[in-house]
Design brief:
This protein is an alpha/beta fold. It is built from nine helices and eleven strands. The protein has a single domain (about 30-240), classed as Rossmann fold. The protein has helices at about 35-45, 65-70, 85-95, 110-115, 140-150, 170-180, 190-195, 210-220, 230-240, and strands at about 1-5, 10-15, 15-25, 55, 75-80, 100-105, 120-125, 150-165, 185-190, 200-205, 225-230. Helix 1 (about 35-45) runs parallel beside helix 2 (about 65-70).
């Protein structure tokens, strides 16, 4: 259940792990590092302030949808979450401002993506965890193709993932999306990429060039600076990893105890 951190600011925990942080008075304030990286993606997807059509898979306390609504007024956002009790809790305790343009749906992320209209989203954000692991059915090439179908020609896919050395899961995910999309990039802290610790990484994919330079500037300025891997550096990271299909897909690895804390995702 959610715990109040300070007046009008809420920390949502799931099974004792920090999951979302929301400041109802300042929706542009984002506490967790991985969520800030997703916000940087929002900032770089289109011209400043331009409204977006966004599909969010996984809602939490709606930190990122609130950020989009505040920074890009007029955006239309659909949020899909399988946890009906969580959706109801958010509606009751963390109400959205009037006219936010955010619609909540209870449903399975994969099924919703497969049924969503083609070319309907500027941005598709996947932040889905079953407990502390990304479900296997959201890691396959069939799922990647469904996500690609939903995006507009210049649309961007962004997924919050988690892994640690030797990065079998993360490399397979990059290879899977590289098989579907023209452009792929990865945002993560250097300590994670060097295998020193388990942590979050944001996977990006698009059919058009990504604003790698803009993302690099923003992520480098965070309290915990991150690096944007792209091009040859990313291909070296992927090595000989192969795409996975529904038959071979696995969930992300179980994080070690204490892997995630407030401010680190």
């Amino acid at each position: 259940m959610p715990d109040v951190d300070r007046e009008r600011a809420w920390l949502l925990t799931v099974d004792g792990a920090p999951q979302s942080y929301v400041d109802l008075d300042d929706p542009t304030y984002i506490e967790f590092e991985y969520a800030r990286r997703l916000a940087h993606v929002v900032d770089c997807v289109a011209a400043e302030g331009a409204p977006l059509d966004v599909l969010h898979l996984g809602g939490g306390a709606l930190t990122l949808p609130r950020y989009v609504a505040a920074t890009r007024p007029g955006s239309r956002q659909d949020v899909v979450d399988a946890d009906r009790a969580l959706i109801q809790l958010v509606r009751e305790h963390l109400p959205l401002p009037l006219g936010a343009g955010i619609t909540l749906h209870a449903g399975d992320a994969r099924a919703w993506t497969e049924q969503a209209p083609a070319a309907s989203a500027d941005l598709l954000v996947a932040d889905v965890f079953g407990g502390s692991r990304v479900p296997a059915h959201l890691t396959s090439i069939e799922y990647a193709r469904a996500a690609e179908k939903v995006l507009k020609p210049a649309g961007v896919y962004a997924a919050n993932l988690a892994d640690g050395a030797p990065f079998a899961f993360l490399r397979s995910q990059l290879a899977t999306f590289q098989a579907v999309f023209t452009e792929v990039a990865l945002i993560a802290e250097p300590s994670v990429l060097r295998g020193r610790r388990f942590g979050n990484a944001v996977l990006l994919a698009s059919r058009r060039p990504l604003d790698v330079a803009g993302l690099a500037r923003r992520t480098a300025g965070d309290a915990f600076p991150a690096r944007v891997e792209h091009g040859d550096a990313l291909r070296r990271f992927i090595k000989n990893a192969a795409p996975v299909d529904d038959a071979s897909a696995l969930p992300s690895p179980e994080p070690p105890d204490g892997a995630f804390g407030i401010g680190t995702g």
